[in-house]
Amino acid sequence: MKENAIRNTRVMLLHLPWLALLGWLSSVAWFLCDDAFISFRYVRNLLEGHGLVFNPGEYVEGYSNFLWVLELAAIWWALGVAPEDAAPWLSVAFTAGTIAAMLWWIARLPLLCHRGLVAWMALGLVCASATFAVWTSGGGLETRQFTFFIVLAVMCLSLYRDSRRGLLASSLSLAAAALTRPEGLLLAALCFGWFVIQRMADTGRRNPDWRRLICLAAPFVVLVGAHFLWRYSYYGEWLPNTYYAKHVRPWYESGFRYLWAAALETGLYLLIPLAAVAMRNRWRASRDGTGALVLLLVGVHMAYVMRIGGDHFEYRPLDFYWPLLAVPASMGIVHLGSRIASRRWLRRFSPLLPICTAGARTCAFVLFIPVLFYTSAIQGALLFEGAAIRERIKKLHIALDDRNAAWLLAAPGMPMLVAVSNDLRRQTSRQVVAAPFTQAREFANQQLRRWKPYENMERGVIPDDALTVGGSIGIRFYYLPDLKVIDLHGLTDATVARNPVETPNHQRRMAHDRQPPPGYLEERGVNFTIHLPVTSEFQAFGRAGYAVKVGPALWMPFDSSDRQWVLDRFAGRDLRVFDRDYVASLTGDNQPAIRSDWDVYLIENSLIYVKDPCSPEDAEPTFFLHLDPVDVNDLPSHRKQYGFDNLDFAFRYHGLIEGEVCAAVRELPDYAIAALRTGQFTGEGQIWKGSFTYNSLVDESET
Q1: pTM for this prediction
Q2: Which CATH architecture has domain 584-693?
């Protein structure tokens, strides 16, 4: 007992550095993505009694993660933990389960030489993978849950395929995977086919073992079949609406670039051959085809990914590759190390008589080091380079070069690999394929800062017949649960999802191809455009023509083309209308800070531009607005190099024309401002300009 305790302690201490590395990388890559909030809104509507719908009354399956949605709903209902808080930690739990299943698989695998070394190497390959670390928090998505169920199913089929309980566990795992992601159906079918062949090899029979196959397949068929029947009865479709929205046509060229980039950055070009070595070795030793199952799942899934063109997120569909391949790849390294140590270069030897010597372990370890480096270095460099990017969400492509990865380029062969991967990422970024987690993180962080205040909004303010449109429908409309929305790309709208796409493949954008058919938005009666929340009514008019108070120090700016509809629906509410009378009430007792073609007033923390009399032509030229801060460090990162902020704007987004009066409101940033310059310009030059300093408000305007 004491010896076992000492051995277990030693094993744990050897594994702890890898787990600490994964924890560190995962903390660097921790993020939420906007898409996850689409599922979160389904969760909210389910708990509020509307059913599994995005818009109450509209039965469209705009999610593809049924089991994930139910789990988050159960957690919110039972524990009171909202999905945006529960989802990342649920992914962490499934990460722990994935690693535990992988180590259990190695610990119980028969006829395995250097078992401890194989476990240590496999754990190292997984924990050092920046890609695996990125999806530890999952962005709030179901990615790691799917990985866990696939790994668990493969482990059970490998170790317990002779047991009814093992087959039941495999079947339930595959069913859970299929209920988590649609491609689980494909992987389950491959597992069933492999089981038939492997069972024939185990028993020496030429005919399938139908009883065992039924034990494996029956629970899966019952559960997944029941879900299909429920889906058809509830939504009227056999497939989720997301399938119709995203699948336009085969897109092999994009899929090839996606997989080729993944192979270079994550070392699939090493892991797959090493897994093939282990597969051959174990088949010859004991007729164990588990390695073949792993390669079958990975190979066929790669063909599927190539056909659909990849994915919007960086290597998300490939997440289950790393723990599945890590085990046979580590076995392949140990096998090659044993062959080298035995010095039997030209003749075969039986793997049933392994050479368990210190030399074999040393050779395997020496082989493992370059494998670990080439499978993790590029993605590791990209992880930290991407993690350093803040606010610059439009930077889709991250290139590695001498400035940020000189250490990487010093390794043999790396300059070529890095150059090719840089080019592939540049190509995929143009079509919004393989977007780095940084982009999703920064966009989500920006959206949360902007829209989350609406979670404090009084419910029932938005009229039941208000309808808007949106391209990014996650975070914004999760915090506006009462507002119905048409998704411009069709994820939650059946009509848009089925609108034909004529765009050729080289001009497509992943998951952004669908558009509403002509006249559809008018036919549906879109009548509402909501803007970012503000703390005062005047700030609201820097963004919209209407404002209504929806909570303590919380105003909702919005626009609508139907003035009478607004007045009727918000009767009895604290409604404000940006019109001529309102402008007069603001400017009547105030002196302009700038007098020129336009009078510019500084009111609260906003500028109001007024011209009377005015024509639409007067408001057509672009307005420039440049701010000099008191402290240049207060500027956004992309403006610090210039020393001033640029808030140029078009009148049509910030103003109104009523009669002969034109007025526009422009909200100023929160940081301290030393001086301000504004005016209008065209391609021929400035029309007018004016400026003032904040300490004296000296009028320096000129025409």
Answers
A1: 0.88
A2: Sandwich (2.60)
